[in-house]
Write a structure and sequence with these properties.
Blueprint (H helix, E strand, L loop, with lengths): L1 E10 L2 E11 L4 E5 L6 H9 L6 E6 L2 E2 L5 H10 E4 L11 H6 L22 H13 L15 H14 L4 E4 L8 H18 L2 E6 L2 H7 L2 E6 L2 E6 L6 H8 L3 H11 L1
Parallel strand pairs: 3-8, 3-9, 6-7, 7-8
Antiparallel strand pairs: 1-2, 1-4, 4-5, 9-10
Helix pairs in contact: 4-5, 5-6
Length: 260
Amino acid sequence: MLEIEGLTRRFGGKTAVDRVSLTIPSGQMVGVIGRSGAGKSTLLRMINRLTEPSEGSIRYDGVEVTALRGKALRDWRTRCAMIFQQFNLVQRLDVLTNVLVGRLNHRAGFMGTMGSLVKRFSAEERAMALMALDRLDLADQALQRADTLSGGQQQRVAIARAMMQEPKVILADEPIASLDPRNSKVVMDALRDVNKRDGITVLVNLHHLDTAREYCDRIVAMQAGRVMFDGVPEELTAEKVREIYGVSEAEFQEAAQEAV
């Protein structure tokens, strides 16, 4: 279980995330929605400790994540994988090597170039990476350079890399913001499959309300750093959207899309 209590982050005089408290059972898929600047990305980055909280607590299965240092923090970042909007792949390397990068935290003290990386992994690890790619319909692209793939394919490579970490939690920060509708569906299907088949907790930041309703067990709506709604998709009605954001659902979608 992931427990967040009073989580706050300030940047100078601006409060980006303001006293957020959430309890997320293991295996839940949670969509976090909000306009650009609502605090969604900062919230996810704090959970992974890429951004340090100004105040508050993050606990996972009773362990205080905000207190972790050194190897314990590296272990947490292995258990809590991040997926980014811009994929964060090494474009000049092949797909298989990019996926194997997800095993780095399982290999203490790796030293060497990225190009020599694939030779240092075991046959079992390479087979594991190929299985992850096959599951995402990318096995045929394993030896292609990452920069030859479409945006949707690159995002699926990022999901395969996250799976290689054998995480308990996946944090997906706007994973479909730069994708067309067809590729968005493929990526969201992949995230839901990982969630349902493997029981991995997934928190995904989204601009599209309909996508959150379709794929997520629970929706958290943020505005100006605060949680304004936390409930099941059926409860996030058009009236509730207007109450939270002061605009119609169509206007919210239009403004969110323009911000991407």
